[in-house]
Design a protein that fits this description.
Order of helices and strands: EEHEHEHHEEE
Strand order of the largest sheet: 1-2-7-3-4-6-5
Distance between the termini: 16 Å
Structural class: alpha+beta
Largest sheet: 7 strands, antiparallel
Strand content: 15-25%
Number of helices: 4
Number of strands: 7
């Protein structure tokens, strides 16, 4: 799907992933949206993410700025180019195929969506552990999932800052 506005395009696409590299050995449909990186989208990103995620019956999803995937890749072992510790000192992440179940998020984004299955699997919220994130999260309007709000007031811009992808 594309809105046809070359000056401010919105594009949504889906990618069917086979079971072998996916958590729990289950096939997945990954939905990706490219949105303009402007004040309107930033203000609405949580609602857009919740709507797309719940419409797709997603386990989890995130909205993060362009270039975010390359940052996450630096945190996953298994490549000759990946050090033992991430360049920014962040913890290393398990690759998706090493996760035991599809409802476990591969990583956290700037804004995150978690289904009720995911919140149970990650035991969120645990008030003693999640106090900071709990103050920035809320149930979706439907009550089906939870949105963990922005980890910062504005996402860090990298590379070409004009786009914000939302991957599910």
């Amino acid at each position: 799907m594309c809105n046809g506005d070359e000056g401010s395009p919105v594009m949504i696409s889906g990618l069917k992933r086979s079971a072998s590299p996916m958590p729990g050995g289950q096939p997945q449909l990954q939905v990706h949206a490219k949105l303009p990186f402007d004040a309107t989208v930033i203000a609405a990103v949580a609602a857009v993410l919740a709507g797309v995620a719940e419409g797709a019956r997603a386990f989890w999803g995130h909205a993060s700025p362009d270039g975010y995937g390359s940052e996450v890749a630096k945190q996953m072992p298994g490549s000759a180019h990946v050090p033992e510790r991430s360049p920014r000192g962040l913890p290393m992440l398990n690759p998706p195929e090493a996760l035991r179940a599809p409802m476990l998020p591969h990583y956290l984004g700037w804004v995150n969506y978690w289904s009720s299955d995911t919140t149970r699997a990650i035991r969120f919220p645990a008030p003693s552990r999640d106090v900071g994130l709990l103050t920035r999260s809320r149930r979706t309007a439907s009550g089906v999932g939870r949105i963990a709000h922005r980890c910062a007031a504005r996402p860090r811009q990298r590379g070409s800052p004009g786009r914000t992808p939302a991957g599910l």
